Amino acid sequence: MSPSSTPEAALPEESPEVVLEVEDLVKHFPLKEGLIFKRQTGAVQAVDGVSFQLRRGETLGIVGESGCGKSTLAKLLMRLEEPDSGAVRFRGEDFLAMRGEALRRMRRKIQIIFQDPYTSLNPRMSVGDIVAEPFKLHPEAKPAIGVRKRVKELLDVVGLNPDHINRYPHQFSGGQRQRIGIARGLALNPDVIICDEPVSALDVSVQAQVMNLLKDLQGEFGMSYIFIAHDLSVVRHISDRLAVMYLGKLAELGTDHELYGAPAHPYTQALLSAVPVPDPTMRGQRQEIVLQGDPPNPADPPSGCRFRTRCWKATEICITEEPELIVRPGVTQQVACHHAEPNTAVSAEDH
Amino acid sequence: MTELNKAHTVVPAGDPAPSPAPKASAQKDASLWMDTWRSLLRNPWFVVSATLLVMLIAVALFPQLFTDHNPRDCPLSRSRQEPSAEHWFGTDIQGCDYYTRVIYGAGNSMAVGVIVTLSILVLGSLLGLLAAYFGGWVDAVLMRLTDLIFAIPYMLGALVFLAARQERSVWDVAFILIVFTWPTMARLMRGSVLAVINNDYVTAARALGAGPLTIMRRHIIPNSLGPVVGYAAVYTGVIIGAEATLTFLGVGLQLPAISWGLQLNDAQSYLQQMPHLLTFPLIFVALTVFAFTTMGEALRDALDPKSKKR
Amino acid sequence: MTTAPQNTSAQHSRSDVAGNGPLLEVKDLHVEFRTKHGVAQAINGLNFTLEAGETLAILGESGSGKSVTAQTIMGILDMPPGHIAGGEIRYRGQDLLAMKPEQRRRLRGVSISMIFQDALSSLNPVLPVGWQIAEMFRVHQKMRRRPARQRAIELMRRVGIPAAERRVGDYPHQFSGGMRQRIMIAMAIALNPDVLIADEPTTALDVTVQAQVMRLLKELQTENNMGLILITHDLGVVADVADKIAVMYAGRVMEAADVYDIYARPGHPYTQGLLESLPRIDAAGERLNAIPGLPPSLTDMPPGCPFSPRCPYATDLCRSELPGLLPIVAEHTSACHFRDDMYRGRLQTPEEAQA
What we know:
Oligomer: heterotrimer
Strand content of chain A: 15-25%
Keywords (chain C): ATP-binding, Cell membrane, Membrane, Nucleotide-binding, Transport
Radius of gyration of chain A: 21 Å
Membrane topology (chain C): Peripheral membrane protein
Organism (chain C): Nesterenkonia sphaerica
Subcellular location (chain C): Cell membrane
GO molecular function (chain C): ATP binding; ATP hydrolysis activity
Structural class of chain C: alpha/beta
Structural class of chain A: alpha/beta
Shape of chain C: globular
Shape of chain A: globular
Number of helices of chain A: 10
Helix content of chain C: 25-40%
Distance between the termini of chain C: 37 Å
Number of strands of chain A: 12
C-alpha cells in the first residue's frame, strides 16, 4: 500500500495511502561575517534531519517553541526554501527534483494558510481577486463554471457572504480574513494544506470558529493537514498524529492518544505539564515540570541529545550519543530519548 | 452533550455572513484607492494645493490665455515702468510687459520640475525595486552607487557640470538634476519595497508559483509606490526651486529663454530701484514650490498604509 | 467588582502611610476614545476592588477594554484620543483621577507598577539592563551609583537571571524573551509596589517559559503581599493563578466572581461561551462550541445587552434593555437578565423553551 519502507509506529492496518513523505530533511542557514568578503562563521541548524509521513485525510500536528524550526520546515515543504539535503516525496514523486512546469503543477497540490490575517492578504486587491489569484497563476485549473462563480462558492464554503466578493480586506475582521486566506488555499483543491499557526492570532471565540471550519473542510474534501502550532491544546484538538520538535529535530512522534496520554520524551512531558488547564480545581493536582532556562542557541546546539542541557534525566550517554527517533521499549510511539519512559502523571487524558 | 453541541454549532455554519466589520458597512466597494481619494478630499490643504496646482499648470501650458501681450514685444520706450493698470507687474529694462514675462516663465520652470520628477520617479523606483527584490550583489552595487552620488551635494554637482557647458537648454538642466537626484527616490523605493516584500501575501503568491514579474506587478508595486509618489510631488517643488537657483546663479537656462530664474537673475542688478522685478517672479516660485510640497504632504498622509490599519 | 474584600487577614504594608479603604478600588469608570469615526466607548462603567495579596484577573478578548483599563489605572492612557468620561480610581481611599499629575507620577512605579506584553520594546535598547533597573533606585530613592547597581544585581538574581553579576552590563537584545520579561518584572517590583498590573505578561512567551514567569510572579506577589491585576485573554493561565475574575466584553464587566465559582458555574452566557469554545488539552477532538459572530464595534453598540447579537439565549428584553451587574449570590455578580437561571443551569434557548 505504502510506497515507503520507513517504519511507522502503530499504524492501523487499513491506513490510507501516504501523500507526503519527508526523509531526513536538513536546512542550515549559514552565518556570515565580513563586509565584502563574507566568510562563514557558523550555521543555524534550523531543521536538522526531520522525517515523517503524512497520510491522506489525516492531520499531523507539529508542535514546538519559537526557534525550533517548525516554520522553516513549512517553508521547505512549500519549496519556498531549498533544503540542504533530504527528500520530500509527494505521492512517491520526488518533489525536490522538480523544476519549471512540473514544479508549478505540483504547487497546486500543496497550499499554505498563514498565521497573521493582517499580512497574508494584499490590501490593494479585492477579496474576489485574492481568492481568484490561484486560477490566474494556474489557468489550466480554471473551473468550468467560471472563476467568479467558483470564487463565490468558495466564499460560501468558508462561511463568508458571497456578495462581499468586491470588498477589500480592511473591511473584514481578523477571523473573517483568516477565512479568506482559507478560501484561497482551497481554490485549487490541494491534497495537502500546511497550516502555519492559523489560529494563534485570533481571539478565543473566533479561534473556535476557524478550527471548526478547518475540521469541517477536511471532512468534506478529505485533504491532509500539517498543522503547525505552539499551542498544545489547539493542536490536540485538531490532530490525529503529533510531532514534537526541539531545536530542529523531532523529539517524539506518535498518535494524539499516545503523546497526550503517555508522553515518553522528557521535553514532551514538560511541554504538557506547562500547559495551563482552564479549570481551577486542577490547581496543584497535576504534576508540574518547570524547565530551567531557555532553549540553547540553534547555531551552537549541545552535543548528543539537544535537550540534555535542560533535562533532569540527562546522563553521560546523552552527551556522547545522539538518540535516534525510534520506537522504544514500553511505548508505541517513536521517541528520540535514551531514557524514554511513559509518564502518565502529566497525561492530559481523562482517566 | 452532542445534541447540545449540534444546536450550537449549526449557528456559525448556517450564518455564513458574520456581519462585516461594522465600520465599513456603509460603503460597498471601498477599495483603498477610493478611501485615499475620500480622505484627500477631506484634507483642506489638499484642496488648496490642488486648486493652486491646476491654475499653475494651466498657466504653464496655455500662457496665452492669461495675457493679451506678447512676451517678446519689448519696446524700449516703455522700459522700467512701475506696476500700473496697463502693466500689472510693471515692465522690465527692455520694456517687456513683466506680468506676461512671468506668466510665460512658468512653462520652463514647470517643465524642468515635471521632467526631472517623472524621470527620477521611474528610474529611482525601478532601481529601488530591483535592489530590494533581488538583494545580494544587485542591492550592494546599486546602493554603493547611490552612496557615491549622495556624497556630492546635488546643487554643487549641478553647478560644476552645468558651468562647464556653453549651451544649456531645459533638457540639459533637467538631465543634470536627474543624474544627481535619482538616488533619493531609489533609496525611498527600496525601503518601501522592503517593508512590503516580507508580507505573507507575497509568500503566498510565491507558493502558488508566481514569477518575479507577476509578484512585483500585482503585489509589490501597488503597495510600495504610495509613499514614493507623495515624496515625488514634494520633490517637484524642490526641483523647481533648484532650477530657479541654478539659473539665478547663471548656470541654468540662458537667454533668450524665459524663466523665473532668469528674471530673478536680471532683477538682482536693479534691486534698489525696481524691487518689483524681484518680487513678482519670487512670489510665483514660492507659490509653485508651496503647492507641490503641500500636495506631496497630503498625498503621503493619504497613501500611508499605517493610517489605514483596521 | 462589588464584592467584599476577601483577604482582610493580609497585613497592609503601607496602610499607615495613606488613607483608608481597599488597596485599589475602581468605581463606575468610563473611558472613551474620540476618533474621526465617532466616539468609541472603550470602558462603560467598570467596578472592582483589589486587596493586598489578592490576584484579580481581568479577562477579555481584543477590544474588550482590558488593556485600556490597565492604562487608565496607571495613568498612561494616550489623551487624546482617550478621555476619562467619569468614575473614580481609589488607591487606599485617594482618588487617583483627582490628583495632580505630579502627585500621580510619584505613585507610578513606587506604589502602582506595571509590566507589559512586549519586553523588548518596553526596555531601552541602548542602555544596559542593570543600569535601567538601578535607575529606579537612583531616581526614586536618590541612591548612589554603586549601591544602586548592587541592588540591581540582587534583583536580577531574585527574578532568576543566571550569572547576574556578569550580565548586569548586557543590553536588552542580548537576553532571550523570557529573560527580558524577568528584567521588566525586576524593574516593576524594584520599589516594592503595592499594586502590580501585568498586561498579558506571558502572551509572547513559549509555554515552558510562560510557566516559569507565572510562577515567579506568584512568588513575588506572596513575598511582597502585592495586589496583582492580571490582564489576559488566556483562560488557562487565569484558572491557574487568579483569586477572582472579571470578564470583560465590549467595555463592560459581564461577570465577576471567585475563580472556582465562575469556572464551575458561569453566570453569564458569554463566560459559558468562552469556556466552551476553548480547546482543552485534556479533551481530544470534540467539536468546539464556537460563539457565532463578532464582538460589536465600540463606536456602534447594539441597544440592550452588548452580547445579545451573539447570545443563544437572547430575548426581546435583552435586545432592548441593558442588564446591570448585579449579584446572583454573594461575591458573584453577572450582567445578564437571566443570571439566576444561567447560574443554576436552568436557562434555555428560545427554541428549547418552545419545544
